Amino acid sequence: MIEARSTEGPQRPVANERADVSHSAERYSTNILLEALSPQDLELLKPHLVREELHRGKVLLERGQPIWSIWFPEGGVASIISETTDHGRTEVGIFGREGFAGTPALLGENTSPHEIFIQVDGPSALRIETSRFLAAVEESATLRRIMLRYVQTFLVQAAHSAVSNAHQRIEARLARWLLMCHDRHDGDEIPLTHEFMAMMIAAERSSVTMSLHVLEGAGMIRATRGLVRILDRQKLEDLTGEAYGQAEADYRRLIGPFGKHHPRRVPVD
Predict the structure, then answer these.
(1) Nearest to 61 by CA among 9, 135, 129
(2) CA 76/CA 105 separation, integer angstroms
(3) Which residue range(s) make up the domain with 115?
(4) Number of structural domains, the chain?
(5) H or E segment and range at residue 107
(6) pLDDT tens, 29-78?
(7) What is the pTM of this model?
(8) Of these four, 27, 61, 122, 262, which has the most CB atoms within 10 Å of its CB?
(9) d(CA 258, CA 265)
């Protein structure tokens, strides 16, 4: 069983839509990728960006459907889902305000091979028509370069996911995904259900329940119904080992600050 998704699919953009983004003098967006752009590159996108609310279950891209829009989340966690006849739905990656939905369009593909939907609430996302995004990328080599740098960091994430799923015990796989969600979520309490965590690490729900007990017994987390509180990142990182951290380090090196990469312990109430 997987987390229920909204029946509301991605909407085809209306022609000649106007941006409704408030232009703050201090910070234009909490999307790290947009904030890393030069003023000149950001100005290529700004007139066409529209801010939309995000909610849990909102579909950004549909599998096998045209990529009408590119989405830059300003928070929350988005799940990238692969679906096969034999194995059903499996999460193959996540991203939040460090990235964008619609990478296949940047690489020359018109349709999405995966579904992408919001699994953990975020405040909003900036959306731009794909044609306008590609026109801006065509105009600026530096804009294209930083977008491709993000794609590179996501490929590293996917590679480490494959290694983790192939070689690590369920507890370590779960610890890794909790760290990744924690990096993308404000605060230490993450709204995650057992169903979603099972999809995250390709495991049975009963195995997730037992693994949560192991992590909780070791003082790494506290789990309640629909909520996981991170207590000790250092222990989680120690358990995960080299399966976590490379993609995050590459992002910080190639693009900008990202994640809660300083291990810390949260006081237990």
Answers:
(1) 9
(2) 22
(3) 30-167
(4) 2
(5) none
(6) 999 999 999 999 999 999 999 999 999 999 999 999 999 999 999 999 99
(7) 0.86
(8) 61
(9) 19
Domain limit, last residue, from 167, 200, 234: 167
**Encoded tokens for 69:** 């829009």
Please check whether residues 106 and 176 belong to one and the same domain: no
Q: What angle do CA 84, 118, 133 make, to 5 degrees?
A: 95
Tokens 């044609």 belong to 131
Q: What is the pLDDT of residues 234-265, one digit of tens each?
A: 999 999 999 999 999 999 999 999 998 654 44
Same domain membership, residue 160 and residue 46: yes
Same domain, 157 and 64: yes
Chain centroid to Cα 189, Å, comes to 17
Alpha helices in the chain (DSSP H): 32-35, 39-45, 103-106, 130-139, 141-167, 170-184, 194-201, 205-217, 233-240, 246-254
Same domain, residue pair 64 and 54: yes
Question: Domain end: 146, 167, 188, which one?
Answer: 167
Give the pLDDT of residue 263. 47
126, 31 Cβ separation under 8 angstroms: yes
Residue 55 structure tokens = 């909610």
